[in-house]
Amino acid sequence: MNEPAHWWLATLGRTIVWARLRVREAGTAEVFDSDGNTLAYDSEDSARAALLDAEFVEYDGLDREDAIERGFDIDEVAPPRAEHDEQLRPLMVTVLPPRH
């Protein structure tokens, strides 16, 4: 799959839950979620709306202040990386160490 990935995240305390949004060539979209499911949407807009409804924000749109509001430093996190979705699944939830 050559479609670029758009990473989204939601936070609960020091836990970050990731979601990957891809827009397909035909204009449909799919979201790979933290449970390892690939959810299909009829458009990028509907996929984005579903992520926003679930209180996710786009990673690329975060600045330092946004990250701090969510409980982490932007330099602490990066979207997960793996060659295959099977390898990606266990990386879709990140628990950050406690702050001192």
Automatic annotation (TrEMBL):
This is Uncharacterized protein. It comes from Noviluteimonas lactosilytica.
